[in-house]
Each structure stands twice: as structure tokens, then as C-alpha cells.
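Is zinc ion placement plausible here? Inputs below.
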Amino acid sequence: MSRYLTDLAAACRKSGLPIQEVPGWRTRGRGPMHGPHGVMWHHTATPDAARGDYPSLHVITRGRPDLSPPLANLGLARSGTVLVIAAGKAHHAGRPDNRARYPWAVGNSDIIGIEIESAGHGHYTDAQWAAAPRLRDALSEHYKLKPDRHIAHREWAPSRKIDPRGLDIRALHSEDPMSTPDAMAMLRDIASRLVVIERNLGYTHDYAKMARVSTRDLPEQLKNLRNRIDTLAARLDALEATELKGTTDG
Ligand SMILES: [Zn+2]
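Reply from A.M.:
I modeled the complex. C-alpha cells:
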């Protein structure tokens, strides 16, 4: 079934990355797509001197004399923001050197094209290094793509392409952002261990209350934990000072 990938922004949002929807993206493209069956990664080759977060947006939406727009479906800006540019077919892949190597793919009509803002010397911002695997995983999850469905333009057409230089999209590890339940479990652990220390030191808190952590009023509770640690640290300092005094006096 051919369609414009109007779920592209929703797919990208699963990455948790900041998303910028470029006006008109839902109807931009050279006709509908099918699949998608894969994702192709590129660098823009726009010079570093070009200002802004995603200076290639103009050429991608307007095209070049030799290539009609759009030139990508998605963009990955210097800040790690994902630009949603076109839901329809984009001119990015060109012919594969060896079609037999990619039996699952047609080309632009079933491969999402991502242009990473980079001059093409193999340099990417820290934000882009962190964002790329998250975007990869979000698209894989949403479109049910296996890991090998993420390919570099240079793999598709090694005779004429080098992009994205220095970036092996399948090898990148995504730093697992801690899940909320994991974070809450860790906070609960910290709170209950604090209670034990405080109790041993003779503090008289409402312990049941002190050990409780919930997602509600989380900033307030984090401040509370920090204040209690500060109190304990001050107490420790006082104890050390006393001991030190004892040593010198003795
Ligand atoms: Zn390319």
C-alpha cells in the first residue's frame, strides 16, 4: 500500500529527542511511499561555516539544479534535533551499485532518507552522536525494521558515495536513558538507606514519610533528599573535627 508517511513525526517522537516539524512536511514529496523497508543515512556536506542548527534545510526543501526536491525525509541538526521534512518520496538514494545486495529495497520509494548536518569530514556534534542511535531505534521500533535495514549511502553506492563519513549507524550504541520505574526504584533505595543512617545517628524523623518516594512532587522530594544528605555531611564534618581535636589534644 502506498502512502505518505504521515506518522513520521510520531515515529521520531519515540526517540525522546526534540522534534521540529518543517511546515508542509505531511504533503511534501515526489509521490507516496511504500513500506518503509529501510532507512538510509547521509551527511549533508554543507560547510561548517554555514550558520544555524540545520543550514541544509533550504537545499533539501528546494532542491538543486540537477535534483528536484525534497532531498531527504528527515534531518538531524547539530543540536540533535530531528527535523521532519517530507512524508513522501525524497531524492536521496539514487541507484544502488549492486541491487542484488539489497533485495528488500527499491530505493527512494521505500527507504527513508536522513541527512545529518555535517560538512563531511567525519565530524559530528556530541548531540548528533547521541541522537543518531536513538533515532535509529525509534524508527526501527515504529516501522518494525531489523537492524540491518539501516544502511549508509556509501554502502548502497560505494562507487560514488562516501556518506555518512565516519559514522557506522548499525554499530552505534544507544545510551539507555534510565526508565522512570528504574529511576524511582533507585530513589526509593537512596531514601530508605538514608533513613537507616539517620536512625543510627539518632535523628527523630517521621521515618515512614522519609522513606516514601513517588513521582508526584518529585523535584520537592529530590530537594528533600539533598538537604538530608547536606545535614549528614555537616554532621560528619563536625564529628571529624571533634576527633581531630581529640587527637591533637591527646
Ligand atoms: Zn548521501
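Short version: Strands lie at 19-21, 38-43, 74-76, 82-84, 111-116, 150-152.
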